[in-house]
From TrEMBL, chains A, B:
GO CC entries: cytoplasm
Name of the featured protein: tRNA (cytidine(56)-2'-O)-methyltransferase
SUPFAM superfamilies assigned to the protein according to its UniProt record, in alphabetical order: alpha/beta knot
Subunit structure: Homodimer.
E.C. number(s) listed in UniProt: 2.1.1.206
A Pfam cross-reference name: Trm56
InterPro entries: Alpha/beta_knot_MTases, tRNA_m1G_MTases_N, tRNA_mtfrase_aTrm56
Amino acid sequence: MHDESEVAVLRYGHRPGRDDRMTTHVGLTARALGADRVIFPDNASQSEETVEDITGRFGGQFAVERTAALDGTISEWEGVIVHLTMYGERIQDVEAEVRRAHRDEPVLVVVGGEKVPFEVYEAADWNVGVTNQPHSEVAGLAVFLDRLFEGRELEQEWPDADRRVLPQASGKRVVDADAFGDGDDPGGTDADGGANDVTE
Amino acid sequence: MHDESEVAVLRYGHRPGRDDRMTTHVGLTARALGADRVIFPDNASQSEETVEDITGRFGGQFAVERTAALDGTISEWEGVIVHLTMYGERIQDVEAEVRRAHRDEPVLVVVGGEKVPFEVYEAADWNVGVTNQPHSEVAGLAVFLDRLFEGRELEQEWPDADRRVLPQASGKRVVDADAFGDGDDPGGTDADGGANDVTE
């Protein structure tokens, strides 16, 4: 996030078709909740396209990359590495340390897809569990980022957006970014979906 | 969560096959992050099965239900209703009010799947956006619950578990719940997956 050390999210593993939606959600969650960049496996081109499309329309400096070298990304990372896993230390026990490290150093957040090899556990500075219960890597990433940034990510601005959603007590309000602030509603109510999921 | 007003999560809409994994993740996230109950649409029997299976193995009082009456569940709810949507008010602006309401009343959290009809926006006491950016209903639910409970959900106990994951700085440690505390590791390292996602 602007003026802070970089936070990048590495999606470790992806099965095309089966994982498309989960991988896309990892990328969109990374973007919405303050990460600077997501790195997908080489075979996740469809997720890359969706996240790039959303960034183009809704703005922000977020970068999407793909790599054939997941392990290389980890071993060559210049900064600290957090691996999110239900087997890890409790987030409430280590989050302050991670926040401290992030003041000075880039953070790579590894989010597992298929089985994660033991080497990733070893390479991580912290293996972190958002609960030690099985649930969702997207949920784990969301809570981790919200706690890492202590809510600052919710105050982000989104430069270069084509459209903006204006918070409403009821209903939907989407405006062209140019018209922002002058009461026009050229975007109408045709924005995507009702929930935060636009990957339908 | 124990000794507090009930929190139930209603998954509004489900397309069998296509949405199975997302709906399952909504249910598992609800369970792991302190909700008491998830209500799925009638056609989400596979997600119901998975969440029940996880609850059987990993414990807790969590309930899973299905209903053919999504709208009826909303209109007959005795308590307050929060609808999570990227079009809603900013969570940081309304979360204190919602927490205050939850001290006295049950909370129904509506999580959209397919397009959510306008009536749901109207029926909700709060339409809440975890950012006004498109991302993931699972991520939105996770951040909402973590903020609703202010982290208390991470200290939950899980009665009647068959197995427990013990937090580790590195590697995996799973024990039979009976052996909890005595150093045995009969579960070995065969627990599910590397990330929090066990719905592979």
